Structure prediction request, 395 residues.
Amino acid sequence: ARLPECPKRRLGVFPTTLNRRALPESPAVATAAHAHGGPLLASSSASARRDAIMAASNGPSTSTMLKVLGCVTGVVGALLVYGILQERIMTRPYGEGADAERFTFSVFLVMNNRCVSMIVAAVVLALKRGLVSPVAPIYSYAAVSASNVVATTCQYEALKYVSFPVQTLGKCAKMIPVMIWGYAINGKTYKIADYLVACGVMTGCTLFAMYGETKSSSAEGPSTGIYGIALMLGYLGFDGFTSTFQDKLFKGYQMETYNQMLWVNFCSAVISSFWLFSDSSMGAAIQFIQNHPEALNDVLILSAASTCGQLCILYTIREFGALLFATIMTTRQFLSILLSCVIFMHPLTALQWLGTAMVFASLYYQAFMKNAAKKDSEGKEEALPTQAPEDGKAA
Prediction:
């Protein structure tokens, strides 16, 4: 009797766990291999392997470049509109002649921004069918929100006393209070390079403040510049505290970004509404808008631009990481200063331009330094050999 024929074994096809070792674990390589006919084969020819590696090293695809362009356009465009409207609302009168009035209700702007962001976050969660109920205790959201409301109010109020370029450049010094709060709250330590960047930013801000006009065009009185600087210091202190405290409070919670966005903005809207009702400015703000309907358009577009910028920022960080985001934001701040100088006629001296250049050079250096350190650490991890255990089981 004939013995049953053994099934022919397919040569060259290995289990998936071994296939991954056939070529470097790069998404681009894997994509190129998949496009050339399915899973990777350990017995593939040298030419096929060479083609896959060359496809991976050809650089970013057209779709990736379009995504980057979309991120740059979204973040820069939305936040430039936000900056221009912020200065227009807080420093330019509405109406003409005897009816001209200035908008003075900073907390109303904060409340409106937070309400729009809260609605957008709720819509996104509904579309994604994400978790809507709060993940952390509600007081955690409220603590972050209270600090954020005070910081943003200081930011708007400062425009009554200092020019927009001063405000924008001052916001670049945010890293200094973040470092201080990080050490005080979380016990974080920083490298010498971080302190050098902080010194570069501080030196640039000092040059800008000392060698040129810093007062807002709407400011009156000799002490207004001091009030403006005090408000900017308040903004920096509370904003640095917000980001540091947020990391500490939400640590350990598996929280989706939009869930956090929903509840932080909800608490911020409640706090700012209570603030407006407690000092009777809610009615006055509504009356102002009724007298000057064009102000409502500016307020709504300001809130929409703020929310759109926030969504573009979240997408940019998720898709391309912190380096591209930091580069875009630094460029946006510089463009905001240039645009403000052109539209609202803020003349800057040569030393003020030098200070501005020092600040942004320090920020660009910080972004690329962090990226280089990240690549170096990733390279060391990839260089470590991964040996299979002697018993042949998967590691």
